[in-house]
Amino acid sequence: MFTSGGPITAVVGRLLSGGDDLWLRLNPVTVNTAITKLVSGRSGLTLISFNEHGHLDGSELLSYR
């Protein structure tokens, strides 16, 4: 799925039981075009990685929300 950082950080915040407070901390540091990985299984969604942006390191394309 492709979406902006806001919805991604909202999902991550809920998965980590941080709610809106965690969203407020995560959203400003979310990198544009970062990769977040989730796995859907029997127990629901599991966060595998958040805000991966190694594909942009050393690039002028790196930008934050």
Automatic annotation (TrEMBL):
Q: What is the superkingdom listed in this entry's lineage?
A: Bacteria
Q: By its UniProt entry, which InterPro entries does this protein fall under?
A: His_PPase_superfam (IPR029033)
The record's annotation in Gene3D superfamilies points to: Phosphoglycerate mutase-like
UniProt name for this protein:
Uncharacterized protein
